[in-house]
Design brief:
Elements: H1 14-22, H2 25-43, H3 54-63, E1 73-79, E2 82-91, E3 94-102
Antiparallel strand pairs: 1-2, 2-3
Domain DUF6788: 65-106
Protein name: DUF6788 domain-containing protein
Pfam families: DUF6788
């Protein structure tokens, strides 16, 4: 007998539940990391449809290591129950990553 899957929140749309149910465990973990990062961003007052300001872009480019291209973005990876920031960018067909820093508990 297999355990029952978790019950989705009542206010989650049927379409979203069906989509999530079709995902592999790896895809679900990826979505969960994105949702966590998006929630943290919104909690800090950011809006997803807001364009980055020039100051934010300048600060990010000043923070880039030499080997990381300016098109890189910051992602959060969870490794052994610890969360870390990584620079991530596409290089042809490959996605490249470079360690940035641990995620502070305040984030």
């Amino acid at each position: 007998m297999t355990p029952k899957p978790p019950t989705p929140p009542a206010d989650l749309s049927t379409e979203m539940v069906d989509t999530l149910n079709s995902y592999s465990p790896e895809q679900l973990r990826y979505v969960a990391r994105y949702a966590e990062a998006l929630a943290a961003h919104k909690a800090r007052g950011g809006r997803p449809d807001e364009e980055s300001t020039a100051d934010e872009n300048d600060a990010q480019s000043d923070d880039l290591p030499d080997e990381v291209p300016s098109k890189a973005t910051i992602t959060i990876k969870e490794i052994n129950d610890n969360r870390y920031y990584y620079w991530q960018w596409r290089d042809g067909d490959k996605v490249r990553s470079k360690y940035k820093a641990p995620v502070s508990p305040d984030d």
